[in-house]
Structures are given as structure tokens and as C-alpha cells.
Amino acid sequence: MDKxxxxxxxxxxxxxIGRVLNEWYQVAExxxxxxxxxxxxxxxxDGTFQMMQKAAEGKEAFIPLTxxxxxxxxxxxxxxxxxxxxxxxxxxxxxxxxxxxxxEFWEFWENRKKYDMIIGHRKGRQDGFSRVFVTKTLxxxxxxxxxxxxxxxxxxxxxxxxxxLKENIKLIPKNYNLSNVIISVIYAKKQKKxxxxxxxxxxxxxxxxxINMKKIFxxxxxxxxxxSAINKYIG
Length: 235
Hints:
Radius of gyration: 17 Å
Shape: globular
Number of strands: 7
Helix content: 40-55%
Number of helices: 8
């Protein structure tokens, strides 16, 4: 039996957090062997963390954490380092907006021994044209800068073997904003065994997305600079 840590970042998700927590808690319980659901509150300004604390009562496999606001990528990295430190065998990451389906996790889990990482491919995604455009543009930029083809580099639905992640996470700068993207790139550059499986990707199930096009362009501009710098030492 393998120990699974489910890592979910959360920021101002009081409309979604209860439902998402309950759905993914069932996955952690079913996985067993000391598996844990870890939700990291990224300095929310609403009642997200208070709801998490209340929900933790009577849920042994749920660990609510909070930290100062640092952004999505930095929060994911925080969760990955935490899971590695706690002795997870496998680490799974998804988001707290309810766009992914816990029922689709089990195909990933059944195939975990065959690959270093399994990523969900958001085929027929339902979260708007702007997000699809960003994904396609990102794929092109990664090919241009890193000379690798990554089908869906930033998908928040990925299962990773902890030992492999531990060796490669060292290459990622602390608090890096596009951590999942760089993990995908590193695995592609090093020719790790990666499998893409199509997943359902629904519209946000509640609340307001904290990322808009203005932020996306700002992140993209910074990403080009960061990619060039990172490429020098992961080649």
C-alpha cells in the first residue's frame, strides 16, 4: 500500500471549499495507508481557512494549513515540500474551484507504478476561450524556449511519485509562480515517464476567479524572463 498526499491550494474559496473538501476527503480515506488530504490556505481574506478548521473536526485524514499570500504556484510548492517531508509515496495536486472530478482520479492511481507522473489532459475544457488561448500559447512558448513539447503543462490534476519529484523540485526557485509548468518541463527535458490521460474540466463551480487577463499578461511577461533564466540550469 502506498501513502497518498492530496495537495490543494485555496484562496478566497469559501463558496467551494466545503464541497471540494468533502469530495476529495473521500479519496484520501479510500486510498488509506496514512493518506492525507492537505489543503493550504494562501492567506485568504474571506472565511476559507475558518471553514477548513471547522471541517477538520472528526476528519483525521484532513490537514488544514495556512500561510501568507504568495500565489498559486508558491502555494503548490509549499504543499509539495510538506508532502515530501511527511513521507508521502505519491503526491496528487488539484485545485479548490471544483473544476475537476474526484471520480476520475482512480484511473491515475491504478496506473501509478508505470509512470513518474500522470497528468490530466483538459480535452474539451469548459472554462472559457481565454484560458484555452493561454494554454495553447504556453505550449508554443515552452517549445520555443525549452525545445520540448508538453501537451498540457499547467493542468491542476497530476499524480507524481514522491521520490522523483523530490530530486527534481530542487531545480525550482522558491515561491516560483508557475511551478507545475516547470515541473512538466523538467520531466520532459529529462525524459521521465509521463502519461497524459483526458479529464473533464468544468467551469468554476462557485466564487470568482482571482486570475484575469490583465494578471495573465503580467504573469506571462515575467514568465518569459524566468523561463530563460531557468533554462540555463535545467538543460
